[in-house]
Structure formats: structure tokens, C-alpha cells
Amino acid sequence: GREVRLAHRPTGWPTPETFDLVETEVPAPGPGQVLVRNLVMSVDPYMRGRMHEGPSYVEPFQVGKALEGGAVGEVVASESDALRPGDVVLHALGWRDYALLDPARTAKVDPDAAPLGAYLGVLGMPGLTAYAGLLRIAELREGDVVFVSGAAGAVGSLVGQLAKLKGAARVIGSAGSAEKVKFLVEELGFDTAFNYKDGPVHEQLRKAAPDGIDVYFDNVGGEHLEAAIGALRTFGRVAACGMISMYNAVEPPPGPRNLQNIVRNRLTVRGFIVGDHDDLQEQFLREVGGWLREGKITFRETVVEGLENAADAFLGMMRGQNIGKMVVKLADR
Ligand code: NDP
Q1: Positive or negative, the Cα torsion across 66, 68, 73, 74?
Q2: Residue 156: CB within 6 Å of ligand 1?
Q3: Which superkingdom, per the lineage (predicted)?
């Protein structure tokens, strides 16, 4: 087997040298353990945060140790009554060919109900993030005008579709290429979308929503956040989900210059972390799973082949090379 280790803690953008691909021995499960052969793994923006030292809402990665993250794999050996060889499980030990696990740290998934990557995307952590952020944090109401940044990514692409299904009057998305803008409007049903690289965000947003917005789902921070604060109407709400434009910054970037609007327009700006909203998991799977089966929600993934390309997949995702969820395929079932 092989695993990808953190070679050093990056300052600014990580590079291929930040990662080490290492040959390892395939371990045998001890009493109560299972050995899982990983089939598909996730690369997510939060992994950049775990490359820093110091306390956060998840443990930092350790230099010289394998990275971690969501993965789906097949049990190949079991010393536990809880799982049998052939079972397919979701777990948190990605970035390696083989994972040794306590069954309590896995969740069985149905490999025939959805493509395996969906458990890392639309039906997984990013899906719940979209669901909790839009419905609970931003308190979406019928008739709202909704703006979402990072709209063609794993979280954003579900946010836009959910907003439409839940009665938003208008859904506006921003993303970083013409191809993504087309995907938002033609495949996901956004009312309108723009490429934030085409001109100042506040100008493009004003054109897309001349009467302002009620909800901003922030995946990006920076210029997008300032533009949204400038466009929010009275009692508008921001779900602060992520600020990917800042994750590789060496110095803290300047903040929005228009915070006065928060007072003037009685805005709510609320940050959240998906892990605090597990209580919505069942409702989320019922509702979003149902819409998926009915074809009312679609999803895309960008698949990179091979653990040896996982670091490139992560860096590519941070640069916007993905449409929908970025996943790495490690093996066939
Ligand atoms: P995505 O699938 O959206 O991939 C990241 C995307 O970010 C890229 O495709 C790129 O698209 C965009 N991007 C990168 N740099 C910039 C930039 N400078 N300005 C604007 N866009 C940029 O990732 P996820 O859907 O997994 O995550 C989206 C956001 O949600 C992230 O901020 C993440 O940290 C956050 N998140 C938060 C969670 C929580 O619990 N609060 C849980 C999960 C995710 P483009 O081509 O459009 O630039």
C-alpha cells in the first residue's frame, strides 16, 4: 500500500513538495478492527486549514504522518462482528490505499444506491453543509433573492438548487470560469450567474440583482463578501460558510470596508461549522436523497485517478479546476 504524508507545514500556497507519497506495509487488523481498501477519497478546502499548527475546530495534520480525510472503501479483512468483508464504508482515513479502522469510526453505505463519490459530496459532508447553512443558518424564506459564491463547487452547487426548490424568488451564482457559469444556468437552474474574474464583483452583482439580495451564502470571503454586504436588503442574512480566497494568504487580507451596512440594514452575519449540525443529518438525507432519486437535484463530480495524483487534485481544487465535487479514485470495487 501507499500513503500521502505531510512533508512540511506550508506558508502561502502548498506545492507538490508539501506532500510525500510513501510505500507502506499493508497492516493486518487486530481484535475488533477491520482493514479497508480505499476506493475513492475526498479533497476538501478545510484540509488547507489542517496543515497549520495550532488549535482549530479539527486537529492539525502532523508533519511526517499521513493526511486524513473522507473516503469510501471496501472491507477486505475483518476481526469484528460489526462488519464483513465486502461491506462498503464511509470513514475519515483517506490519503492512503489501506486504512485500519475501528468499525465504530465507519458508516456503512449502500454502493448500489448512488455512485460512491456522492457519499463524499452531495449526500455527504458538503451536502449537509449546504443544507444546514442555507436552511438553518441563513433561514431561507420563500421569495428570498439568494446569492451564492463558489457556486459551481460541491457546496455551492447544492445551495443554489436547494434555494430554488425551497421557493427562492431568484438565485444568483458566481464562479471562476465561463464554463462554470454555463453549468450553473443551464444544468443547475440558477436564474443568473457571472464569472467573478470578468470584473469587480460589486458591479456584476448589482447587474444581476438590481434590487438587492436577501441571503448571501459565502464560500469565498474577501471581495465577494464586501459586495454582498453592499447588496443585502434590510434584515438580510449571511451564512458564513468558508472564505477560500484567504486560505493561502500569508498576511491577513483587508476586511470589507462597508461593515456599517450591517447596522444600517440590520443584517445577520453568522458563521457555522457543519459538525455542529449532525442533528439535521436524517432530515437532510431524506429530503435531498429523495430529490436526487426524483431527478430534481443533479450533481457533478470531477474525478482524478490515482493516489499518486491526490496532491495535484487537492491543489487543483484550491485553484478551481473542479466542477462540482473533486474526488480521487483509488481503486475499482
Ligand atoms: P469547492 O468544490 O467549491 O472547491 C473550491 C472552489 O473554490 C474552487 O473550485 C474555486 O472555484 C473556488 N475558489 C478558489 N479560490 C477562489 C477565490 N480566490 N475566489 C473565489 N473562488 C475561489 O469546495 P467545497 O464546496 O468543498 O467548499 C466550498 C467552501 O465551503 C469552502 O470555503 C470551504 O472551506 C467551505 N466549507 C465549510 C464547511 C463548514 O462547515 N463551514 C464545510 C465544508 C466546506 P472557482 O473556479 O469558482 O474559483
Answers
A1: positive
A2: yes
A3: Bacteria
| Other beta carbons less than 10 A from residue 162's beta carbon | 26
Distance of CA 277 to the CA centre of its chain: 15
ipTM reported for the complex surpasses 0.90: yes
Residue 5: beta bridge partners?
20, 66
In tens, the pLDDT along 281-304 reads: 999 999 999 999 999 999 999 999
User: What pLDDT, in 10s, does the model give residues 166-206?
Assistant: 999 999 999 999 999 999 999 999 999 999 999 999 999 99
Distance 1 CA to ligand 1 centre (A): 30
Let me know if 212 is exposed, middle or buried by CB neighbors in 10 A (0-12, 13-18, 19+). middle
Q: How far apart are CA 111 and CA 116, in angstroms?
A: 6
**Ligand 1 closest atom vs CA 272:** 41
Could you give all domains of the chain from N- to C-terminal order, each with its CATH number? Answer: 2-121+300-329 (3.90.180.10), 125-275 (3.40.50.720)
What is the per-residue pLDDT across 238-261, written as a single tens digit (0 to 9) for each?
A: 999 999 999 999 998 899 999 999
Q: Which residues have a Cβ under 8 Å from the Cβ of 240 and sit 6 or more positions away?
A: 218, 269, 270, 271, 272
Q: Is 95 within 8 Å of 66 (Cβ atoms)? A: yes
Residue nearest to atom 19 of ligand 1 (CA): 245
pTM of the model: 0.98
291 is written with which cell numbers?
A: 430529490
